[in-house]
Automatic annotation (TrEMBL):
Protein's recorded name: Prepilin-type N-terminal cleavage/methylation domain-containing protein
UniProt-listed GO biological process terms: establishment of competence for transformation
Taxonomic path: Bacteria, Bacillati, Bacillota, Bacilli, Bacillales
TM helices/strands, residue ranges: 12-32
Listed InterPro entries: ComGD, N_methyl_site, Pilin-like
Pfam family, one: N_methyl
Presence of keyword Membrane: yes
Keywords: Competence, Membrane, Transmembrane, Transmembrane helix
Main location: other
Superkingdom classification of source: Bacteria
An annotated GO cellular component: cell surface
Length: 147
């Protein structure tokens, strides 16, 4: 005589597995949130660095002076060709970030040879994070430093 076998899972077994998956997901979401914030932060810094290099290259290739203006009131910056007053780029960043001028006076000007007109630094701040952007005289170099 053959006994009929049901090779399925019981309702309680499925509930236990679903509960375990839910607990694992709940534990992993806070860490994913911090990773997402970190990636967004790195994206903003990389984008700013690339935009400044673009302003410098634009000045050299078009043989014109280019002004970069950082807004302290709004989280944005603007790149403008000085001779024609044409806006080359305007970039807004997340509202939780803020530019704070320290020794840099506005506007920052990239000359036709790629150098800047004056040295200085500014801060890019968020509640828990601060970056210092330092512009050096000679060859228009700058660097971003995490404080």
């Amino acid at each position: 005589m053959k006994v009929a076998r049901n090779d399925g899972f019981t309702f309680i077994e499925m509930l236990l597995v679903l509960t375990a998956i839910t607990v694992l997901m709940a534990v992993s979401f806070p860490s994913l949130n911090s990773v997402a914030k970190q990636k967004t932060e790195m994206y903003i810094i990389t984008q700013l660095r690339n935009d400044l290099l673009y302003a410098q290259q634009y000045a050299m290739t078009h043989k014109t002076s280019v002004a970069v203006t950082f807004s302290e009131n709004h989280p944005e910056y603007r790149i403008t060709e000085i001779t024609s007053e044409k806006t080359i780029l305007k970039r807004s960043i997340s509202s939780e970030w803020k530019f704070q001028l320290t020794t840099l006076t506005m506007p920052l000007i990239f000359l036709e040879n790629g150098n800047i007109n004056k040295a200085g630094s500014l801060l890019l701040k968020r509640k828990d994070r601060t970056y210092k952007i330092v512009f050096l005289l000679g060859k228009g170099r700058f660097y971003v430093q995490k404080l």
